[in-house]
Design a protein that fits this description.
The chain is mostly helical. It contains six helices and no strands.
């Protein structure tokens, strides 16, 4: 992703979350549909590096949402948590950052 596209995505996320409209839909698109598309694309291309990267993402994604479901009573009081969650999920699959790979390998 180019920096301009990334900035645009972040601004759209912020606007949606600030107005409180479609937050969960946004998280579903950002956290599941986009990575799902590229996961299938990497499987189709048989790119082992991409397959490994997306596998790390899905491991992180599962653990993240599992922990979130247990900690919901505490998390719901954090201001802008939906925005923070959106940014964390984006940071997990941006090739320049790959937060999920860094967390998994460390």
């Amino acid at each position: 992703l180019s920096p301009l596209i990334l900035l645009s995505i972040i601004l759209v996320c912020l606007i949606i979350i600030l107005f409180g409209v479609f937050e969960e839909l946004l998280i579903l698109v950002v956290g599941a549909f986009y990575p799902l598309y590229f996961s299938f694309k990497s499987l189709k291309n048989r790119s082992n590096d991409d397959i490994t990267r997306w596998l790390y993402y899905w491991i992180f994604f599962t653990i993240f949402f599992w922990l979130e479901s247990f900690l919901y009573l505490f998390i719901k009081h954090i201001p802008f948590y939906s925005f923070i969650r959106c940014i964390i999920l984006i940071m997990c699959y941006i090739p320049q950052i790959e937060l999920s790979t860094s967390i998994y390998l460390n």
